[in-house]
Amino acid sequence: MQSYTDAAISQTLALLAIDSPTGYTANAAAYTAAEYEKLGFRPQRTVKGGVLVCLNPEAPEENALLLQAHLDTLGGIVAEIMPNGRLRLSNLGGLAAVNAECENVRVVTRSGKSYTGVFQLKNASVHVNPHYRDTKRDFDVMEVLLDEEADTKEAVEALGIMNGDIVCFDPRTMVTSSGYIKSRFLDDKLCAGILLAQAQAAAEKAVTLRRRVWHHLTVFEEVGHGAAASVPAGVTEAISLDMGCVGDGLACRETQVSICAKDKKGPYNYEVVSALIEAARRGGADFAVDVYPMYGSDVDVSLSAGHDLRHGLCGPGVYASHGYERTHRKGVENTIRLLNAYLG
């Protein structure tokens, strides 16, 4: 178990090092597909840019299981180059300006060049701006200062930067000696790493797959249509692997695997939720069952798109979602324990 937990964390760290805001995910998808190929699988790239792979194509097609995680993250896009050379952003996904203040960024141009900068409040010096403390942070009062001597719109355009360029935020990834994993974008690269570790376990015959199992790494989850398509023939059940919520009113901790009974879209399939609970018990996983008040998942989108599926949602507990997130290696291990019991 420890080796696959280590593998999941190692893959998570590799993915976190690859910028992949929604709309700019090709590098992360290429890395993921290559990792599946190294394990002997034959991944497909979907038209939308995701990665779809079957772990055991020799198994019967009917009653197959689809496990979903997403590679896309929050980020920004250049909405305006202002006269002073600063950049106004529009957010990609649910990024909140207040959670990204003072963060280092990379601006990626259409020609492939990358420029660093920092996301700040306009007039950000507290010794100059008397309204610094009481200004509500949003994208209208925030800006990117490029780390370039370019203080006019024309100078910035001469660098090759234009409206529509992607802005990637520094994940600031750290693993502590006590087992905590801290980073932006654990949602959902942590679960993508777990799926890659599960694929490794399947390739090494360390887990028994009792039916056909597919993995789908989607790339548009953060904007709401990641898993709307590409459900393979024969799939009757889909489970999203995504961050488990940790916060007031919820039972889950960062060291546990969370099973979601209901999110803002409604309840998950009763039989699937019950089976996940039983698998967690059978596999010795420390788990919690929760109702997520402000959450929607890829598998919600699959159902909304018209796919006739039983659906579920589970994943390691993550604190401070869509901010600077934190989890623990025990949460990863407990998620793997649940999945192994559920699949086998």
Which secondary structure elements does this structure contain, and how are they paired or packed?
Layout: H1 2-16, H2 26-38, E1 44-45, E2 51-54, E3 64-70, E4 75-81, E5 87-92, H3 97-100, E6 103-108, E7 114-121, E8 142-146, H4 153-158, E9 166-169, E10 174-175, E11 180-183, H5 186-203, E12 213-218, E13 235-241, E14 244-246, E15 257-263, E16 266-267, H6 270-282, E17 287-291, H7 298-304, E18 310-319, E19 325-328, H8 329-343
Structural commentary:
This protein is an alpha+beta fold and 344 residues long. 26% of the residues lie in helices and 29% in strands. Strands 1, 2, 3, 12, 13, 14, 15, 16, 17 and 18 form a ten-stranded mixed β-sheet that branches. Strands 5-4-9-6-7-8 form a six-stranded antiparallel β-sheet. A three-stranded antiparallel β-sheet has the order 10-11-19. Helix 1 crosses helix 8. The model has no long low-confidence stretch (mean pLDDT 97).
What value does the Rg take, in angstroms?
A: 21 Å
Residues in helices, as a percent range: 25-40%
Shape: globular
Helix and strand element order: HHEEEEEHEEEHEEEHEEEEEHEHEEH
**How large is the count of helical segments?**
8
The poorly predicted ranges are: none
Query: Which whole number gives the mean pLDDT?
Result: 97
- Percentage beta strand: 25-35%
Question: How many strands, which pairing sense, and closed or not: the largest β-sheet?
Answer: 10 strands, mixed
Structural class per helix/strand content? alpha+beta
The number of E-state strands comes to 19
Through-space gap between termini: 15 Å
